[in-house]
């Protein structure tokens, strides 16, 4: 009897629940290691569509948070489920958390020594043999820092002024970049042949353009407050002076991307940065719910088809 009981216990997973069934169609794994939350969200959406196209289950990875300005002053891997529910994704396609995949399926079906990954040649150069993909090595690319704003009735905006953003937008001046640049198709159009021109005000709005756009939309929506979401210079003092203290100006410090996303998505009006993937994430939600938005340098953006 004791032997039978021991065998029964061995057959049960340590967690006390059955392991998820293996998908014979296969799985898609990806690394969200190029940029901060806005870029990672774009990677997630693209990977979800790609997994559906391939008919493979998507292993949803954690978010990578770069907390170099606050404790614990290092990178953190935060579960997807910390901010979003995983189950609603099943209405669109098959998903599993990367944690569940690696802990419960990979040891059996994808064991160490039989794992293959694909990456750009530049990334492969970081490996010891200069040929294989360094699956456990990643670096953050230059972050896209963009301020965003919101008011109550809320007018929100997403601008940009960090050094990396400045360097990127300078490519417009020397002709290196064209209308399709980073997330710009969201405002100039997805058809390269008919895309609207991408200007410096749309890519890197200065304080003059920020004030112009804010003054216009705060008046139109009769805003009572402005919410600024940014990981760069917020210009809070200048905005307060612009409205002579009659408009409440709020800026969350240190910034928390998920709180910013929620407020910007719910605001009465949103002003975004044309090339920002963070703006794109906000605008998608607002478009679905019919909430008005515009961009710096483009007060009346054309109605576009969805990029997916």
- Main β sheet profile: 6 strands, mixed
Cα radius of gyration in angstroms: 23 Å
Structural class: alpha/beta
Average pLDDT across residues?
81
What is the rounded distance between the termini?
A: 59 Å
Alpha plus pi helix count: 11
The fraction of residues assigned to DSSP E strands is 5-15%
The number of strands is 11
Q: Level of helix content?
A: 25-40%
Low-confidence stretches: 1-16, 138-156
- State the order of secondary-structure elements, H for helix, E for strand: HEHEEEEHHEEHHHHEHEHEHE
Overall, the morphology is globular
Question: Main traits of this protein?
Answer:
308 residues, alpha/beta, six-stranded mixed beta sheet, three-stranded parallel beta sheet, 11 helices, 34% helix, 14% strand, globular, disordered N terminus
SSE map:
Elements: H1 2-11, E1 27-28, H2 37-54, E2 57-60, E3 63-67, E4 74-78, E5 95-97, H3 98-109, H4 121-124, E6 148-150, E7 154-157, H5 163-173, H6 185-188, H7 200-203, H8 207-220, E8 225-229, H9 236-242, E9 248-251, H10 257-266, E10 269-272, H11 277-288, E11 293-295
Parallel strand pairs: 1-2, 2-5, 7-8, 7-10, 8-9, 10-11
Antiparallel strand pairs: 3-4, 6-8
Summed up, what is this model?
The chain is an alpha/beta fold. The protein has 11 helices and 11 strands. The longest helix is centred in the first third of the chain and has 18 residues, at 37-54.
Give a verbal description of the structure.
By secondary structure, the chain is α/β, with parallel strands linked by helices. 34% of the residues lie in helices and 14% in strands. It contains 11 helices and 11 strands. It has helices at residues 2-11, 37-54, 98-109, 121-124, 163-173, 185-188, 200-203, 207-220, 236-242, 257-266, 277-288, and strands spanning 27-28, 57-60, 63-67, 74-78, 95-97, 148-150, 154-157, 225-229, 248-251, 269-272, 293-295. Strands 6, 7, 8, 9, 10 and 11 form a 6-stranded mixed sheet that branches. A 3-stranded parallel sheet has the order 1-2-5. Helix 2 (37-54) packs across helix 11 (277-288) and helix 10 packs parallel to helix 11 (277-288). The longest helix is centred in the first third of the chain and has 18 residues, at 37-54.
């Amino acid at each position: 009897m004791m032997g039978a009981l021991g065998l029964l216990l061995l057959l049960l997973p340590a967690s006390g629940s059955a392991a998820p069934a293996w998908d014979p169609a296969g799985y898609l794994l990806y690394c969200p290691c190029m940029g901060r939350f806005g870029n990672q969200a774009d990677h997630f959406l693209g990977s979800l569509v790609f997994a559906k196209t391939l008919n493979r289950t998507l292993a949803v990875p954690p978010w990578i948070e770069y907390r170099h300005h606050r404790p614990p002053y290092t990178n953190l891997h935060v579960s997807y489920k910390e901010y979003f529910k995983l189950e609603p994704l099943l209405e669109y396609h098959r998903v599993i958390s990367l944690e569940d995949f690696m802990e419960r399926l990979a040891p059996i079906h994808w064991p160490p020594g039989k794992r293959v990954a694909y990456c750009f040649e530049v990334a492969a150069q970081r490996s010891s043999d200069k040929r294989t993909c360094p699956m456990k090595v990643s670096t953050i690319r230059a972050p896209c820092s963009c301020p965003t704003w919101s008011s109550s009735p809320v007018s929100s905006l997403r601008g940009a002024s960090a050094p990396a953003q400045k360097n990127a937008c300078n490519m417009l001046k020397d002709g290196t970049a064209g209308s399709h640049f980073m997330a710009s198709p969201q405002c100039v159009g997805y058809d390269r042949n008919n895309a609207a021109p991408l200007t410096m005000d749309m890519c890197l709005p200065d304080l003059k353009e920020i004030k112009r756009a804010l003054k216009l939309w705060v008046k139109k929506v009769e805003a009572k407050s402005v919410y600024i979401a940014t990981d760069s210079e917020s210009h809070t003092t200048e905005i307060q002076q612009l409205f002579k203290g009659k408009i409440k100006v709020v800026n969350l410090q240190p910034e928390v991307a998920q709180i910013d996303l929620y407020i910007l998505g719910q605001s009465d009006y949103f002003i975004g940065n044309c090339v920002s993937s963070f703006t794109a994430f906000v605008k998608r939600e607002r478009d679905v719910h019919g909430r008005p938005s515009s961009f710096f340098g483009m007060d009346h953006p054309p109605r576009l088809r969805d990029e997916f």
